[in-house]
Amino acid sequence: MIALAVFRLAAYIRSHRVHQALLLTVAMLAIVHGNRAPRGEEASVLTDGAILVLPVLAWAARSLLDTEPDRQREMSAVQVGGRGKEVAAGLLAAFAATAVLSALAMAWALLLGITGAPSPGLLTASFLLYALSALTGTALGALTSRVVLPSPAFSIMALLLGFLAMLLISGTSLYWLTVPLISWMKAANAGELVAQLPALGSISLAWCLIGLGAYVWLRRRT
Amino acid sequence: MRLSRVSFRYRRREPFVIEDVDADLAPGDVIELTGVNGAGKSTLLRLLAGLARPTRGTVSGRPAVVGFAPDRFPTDQPFTVTGYLRHMSRVRGRARWEPWAERLNMGRLLDTRLPDLSKGSAHKVGLVQALMAEPGLLILDEPFAGLDADTRSALPAIATEVAARGGVVIASDHQGGLRGLPGLRHWSVLDGHVTESAVAPPEPEERGQATVAVTVPLDELPRFLAGLRDQGYPAREIEEIR
Questions:
Q1: Do B91 and A80 make contact, defined as CB atoms within 8 angstroms?
Q2: What ipTM was estimated for this complex?
Q3: What is the CATH number of the domain that holds B172?
Q4: Model confidence over B88-113: pLDDT tens digits?
Q5: Which domain holds residue B220?
Q6: Could you give the number of structural domains in chain B?
Q7: Which residues in chain A touch residue B51, judged by CB atoms under 8 angstroms apart?
Q8: Left if phi > 0, otherwise alpha if psi is -120 to 50, otherwise beta: which for B210?
Q9: Do residues B7 and B81 both lie within one domain?
Q10: DSSP for A3-33, written as a single string
Q11: Interface test with A, best of B11, B51, B59 (most A CBs within 10 A)
Q12: Chain A closest-CA separation from residue B186 CA (Å)
């Protein structure tokens, strides 16, 4: 399964599709962190970066999963010993790609986005937040990939609308019905990011797992 | 390996593509699968490979290692032949692909990028990835299409070798490339039903075809259609008259 994940990552890199996601990430980070935020804004800057990079991560995951031709996906499933392992290898490769881009986003925010040094607690919370962002991007990208949504136009619309829906719902009292992006930002602005980490992190992780579970379920026959 | 009353359709309310197939595949079997285009050959191969789950019935006893060579190899991939086969070898636990590449005369193709391959050369890559792990079940979808004469003549011997070490080989084949093999089993797919015959059936195109209309009492229809299918005719209901 690891070898198949490596194969898919290699195809993603060698096809140059990775450059599209990388350039978009860099452009977005350059805009978001164009000016260093003043001391005391560390939590907000780190959190905003993790949320804003999410659609790019989802696009990267979708792009990686769509690199493989449909027939190769079938051959890969036979090679690796079943659909389940092929699906898992694809998700692993997609998460690896989003994790690298997410790490870049976090490093950029730490080095060029903030003035003061974050506390160890904030650093840990931010690390988990960027990891959850990568996982959310993987789930959203997988659910909008070609094998689930064959139409490219419908797929990219579903990706953007999915992100917007997460933003809109998480701004209401029903924030627990999705990955609570706005709740993360509110918590960071209020200086309660570390305190609310267990509750918001649990909700986020649960929705990521539900999204990935839905993808696996949708892939049971294709 | 056994198929028990296997039926398959792609979506609910759609007609079955494969219907009530019962079959046993024993170690050492080499099976030629024939049928007109759209009869359900590729779907049956996908069911055998485990790429599709039966809507009804079961497929049991599938060997652990399956090799699958598609009718059209997907060349739209950013690798050279060597790069691709190395990756596939790692997926297969570092299976040796080099002897197969040599046997299929691929020496000059190894540094070629996959998108630059001709149809026949790409087909060879598909065959090598299927053969490299010594499969217990080797599934070949139109394996002779586009191959050069040397490789065409090598394939029956390769199928015999796989069978000799206890593997099962099943090949959908319009070109009769395996027909010289002793003990070759002949399966025909007609309208989703599989029949086995002792001798290779001539292709319908060779004999000419005719479609006839027969009016049958409604309550006798299932038995009538089943009788025709048992005789190897692709029979189906067209309309119901009240």
A1: yes
A2: 0.89
A3: 3.40.50.300
A4: 999 999 999 999 999 998 989 999 99
A5: 210-242
A6: 2
A7: 74, 77-78, 83
A8: beta
A9: yes
A10: HHHHHHHHHHHHTTHHHHHHHHHHHHHHHHT
A11: B51
A12: 25
